[in-house]
């Protein structure tokens, strides 16, 4: 893990097109701004984890439905 110290208004570049800006601090909270192309998805970690879990569950459901269709001898239209 790379650890950096930045002050309000200072930035960190990630690659050539993602800029992380320190907007300010309030107690233990740090406010960050992220400038990135629209093609780059940016999520809070807990939201990202929830999306990944939902995707896993959807894949499991799809596999279960496929198995059920095989057992019933039907095809997905």
Automatic annotation (TrEMBL):
InterPro entries: CsrA, CsrA_sf. Its main location: cytoplasm. One of its GO terms (molecular function) is mRNA 5'-UTR binding. It is found in: Cytoplasm. GO terms for cellular component: cytosol. One of its GO terms (biological process) is mRNA catabolic process. Coiled coil: none annotated. Keywords: Bacterial flagellum biogenesis, Cytoplasm, Repressor, RNA-binding, Translation regulation. Belongs to the CsrA/RsmA family. Homodimer; the beta-strands of each monomer intercalate to form a hydrophobic core, while the alpha-helices form wings that extend away from the core. NCBIfam families: csrA, PRK01712.1. This is Translational regulator CsrA. It comes from Paenibacillus abyssi. The lineage of its organism: Bacteria, Bacillati, Bacillota, Bacilli, Bacillales.
């Amino acid at each position: 893990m790379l650890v950096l110290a930045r002050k309000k208004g200072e930035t960190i570049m990630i690659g050539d097109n993602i800029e992380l800006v320190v907007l300010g601090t309030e107690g233990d909270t740090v406010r960050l701004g992220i400038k990135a192309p629209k093609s780059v998805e940016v999520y809070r970690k807990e939201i990202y984890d929830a999306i990944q879990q939902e995707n896993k569950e959807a894949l499991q459901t799809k596999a279960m439905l496929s198995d059920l269709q095989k057992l019933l001898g039907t095809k997905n239209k």
